[in-house]
Amino acid sequence: ARAGAAKRRATAGPLAVRGAAAVAGGYTFIKMARYCLMFWLPFFLSKYCGFSPPAAASVATAFDVGGAAGNLAAGVLCDRLYGGRMMLASLHLSFATAAGFLAWAVLCAASVEGSPPVLLHVAAITFIGYCIAGP
How far apart are CA 81 and CA 54, in angstroms? Predict the structure, then answer.
């Protein structure tokens, strides 16, 4: 009976580890959100926020810059502030991402009426990239 249980665990692979399926699923959705934003962001900025296509592409680069910084900082913060508990750090970064999207939505709605405040868009997009790349 023990040999059968050990063989089933071995054939299940990495997903047999407790919590691995949930982390893998969450990571899949985070990657999907990152790639959707990375490819869709220049179009959104030019179509709905009033940026010219070259300016939209330049502003969208802030997402990747924020993501690179967030990826590095998340590891340091996880070790120093959270004692290595990445799931707790990811929870806080997820809430911060939601708050960043909400703030950026308000900014986008406000920029429809006038010229887009470029630095505010860059700050919001960088913050979202920072938070979404951490987990």
Answer: 39
